[in-house]
Structure formats: structure tokens, C-alpha cells
């Protein structure tokens, strides 16, 4: 027999280590899911806020208008807010997205995020950056599964075109 000691792990030590890691992962997984949901909503909220700000600044810059709408394909406004959002420059100053309008940016929405916006409408701005619609317009973002947590975001665009963000409990 050799008097040298071998380096490494025994099979028993390796199995104990794997069991401990599995137990810790099982304990941490539910709280990690809440963190993932929270980050998804924060990301979607930031993207929506950025699109509204981009459309409003472009409306002021070109003095004709601009807007944001729900879009599944990035080429037309179809009111599908949960698939994606499109910001455009209103070239003909009619307040709506039509053929020939300049698409400023298109953002797809994560399938785990539920977005609701103005029904069949766009969020449009005039040449001075004010909201074109007479009634209040808002976007609501929340995870597909929320469990009564304060993860819902309500983005309200006021008459002057400014955006207000509220955190709410999911319904």
C-alpha cells in the first residue's frame, strides 16, 4: 500500500453535496419566480414608457404628431397590445397610423406579460405633444399569473401628454 493520500471527493461526499444543493434550490425557487415576474413587468413598463416618450417627442419635433399602438407584426396597428407595441411619426397629421407613416420603433412583449391598452385605439399626440383623445388613455401591464401581488403597472397619459405610472395589486 502507498502512503500517499489521493485528492478528490468520494462518491458519498458528492451525493451529500448534490442533495444539499437540490434542497436549497427547492427552497429558493418560489421567491426567485417573484423576482423574475417583477423584472419582466419593470422591463415592459420601461419599454412602454420609452415608446410613449419617443412618440411624443417625435410629434413635437415634426409638428405633425405621432403615436403608439398595439401591433402583432410591427407593420400595422391591430390593437393587439399583448403581442407588441409600435411607435410611429404621423406624417399626414391625421392622428392615426396609415400606409406611409414612419415606424419609429417596434417592441415585442414577453408572452408572460399581459398588456391592455385603449380598446381599438391608439395613443396619439398632436404637434404640440398633447394627447389627441378626449378621454383618458392608459396602458395596464401585469404578469399572466400574479397571485394578488403588487406587480401591476398602470401607465396613464394625461391630456398634456405626460405619463404617470402607478403600482397596483393584481386583480
Automatic annotation (TrEMBL):
<protein>
    <recommendedName>
        <fullName>Type II secretion system protein H</fullName>
    </recommendedName>
</protein>
<keyword id="KW-1133">Transmembrane helix</keyword>
<keyword id="KW-0488">Methylation</keyword>
<feature type="transmembrane region" description="Helical">
    <location>
        <begin position="12"/>
        <end position="32"/>
    </location>
</feature>
<feature type="domain" description="General secretion pathway GspH">
    <location>
        <begin position="44"/>
        <end position="161"/>
    </location>
</feature>
<dbReference type="InterPro" id="IPR045584">
    <property type="entry name" value="Pilin-like"/>
</dbReference>
<dbReference type="Pfam" id="PF07963">
    <property type="entry name" value="N_methyl"/>
</dbReference>
<keyword id="KW-0812">Transmembrane</keyword>
<dbReference type="GO" id="GO:0015628">
    <property type="term" value="P:protein secretion by the type II secretion system"/>
</dbReference>
<dbReference type="InterPro" id="IPR022346">
    <property type="entry name" value="T2SS_GspH"/>
</dbReference>
<dbReference type="GO" id="GO:0015627">
    <property type="term" value="C:type II protein secretion system complex"/>
</dbReference>
<comment type="similarity">
    <text>Belongs to the GSP H family.</text>
</comment>
<keyword id="KW-0997">Cell inner membrane</keyword>
<dbReference type="InterPro" id="IPR012902">
    <property type="entry name" value="N_methyl_site"/>
</dbReference>
<dbReference type="Pfam" id="PF12019">
    <property type="entry name" value="GspH"/>
</dbReference>
<keyword id="KW-0472">Membrane</keyword>
<keyword id="KW-1003">Cell membrane</keyword>
<dbReference type="GO" id="GO:0005886">
    <property type="term" value="C:plasma membrane"/>
</dbReference>
Amino acid at each position: 500500500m502507498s502512503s500517499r493520500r489521493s485528492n478528490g471527493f468520494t462518491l458519498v461526499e458528492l451525493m451529500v453535496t448534490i442533495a444539499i444543493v437540490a434542497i436549497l434550490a427547492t427552497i429558493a425557487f418560489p421567491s426567485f419566480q417573484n423576482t423574475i415576474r417583477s423584472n419582466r413587468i419593470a422591463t415592459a413598463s420601461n419599454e412602454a414608457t420609452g415608446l410613449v416618450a419617443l412618440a411624443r417627442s417625435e410629434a413635437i419635433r415634426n409638428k405633425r404628431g405621432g403615436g403608439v399602438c398595439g401591433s402583432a407584426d410591427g407593420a400595422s396597428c391591430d390593437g393587439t397590445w399583448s403581442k407588441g407595441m409600435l411607435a410611429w411619426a404621423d406624417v399626414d397629421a391625421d392622428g392615426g397610423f396609415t400606409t406611409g407613416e414612419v415606424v419609429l420603433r417596434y417592441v415585442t412583449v414577453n408572452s408572460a406579460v399581459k398588456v391592455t391598452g385603449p380598446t381599438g385605439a391608439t395613443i396619439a399626440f398632436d404637434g404640440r405633444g398633447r394627447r389627441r383623445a378626449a378621454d383618458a388613455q392608459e396602458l395596464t401591464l401585469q404578469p399572466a399569473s400574479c397571485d394578488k401581488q403588487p406587480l401591476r403597472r398602470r401607465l396613464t397619459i394625461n391630456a398634456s401628454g405626460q405619463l404617470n405610472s402607478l403600482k397596483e395589486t393584481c386583480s
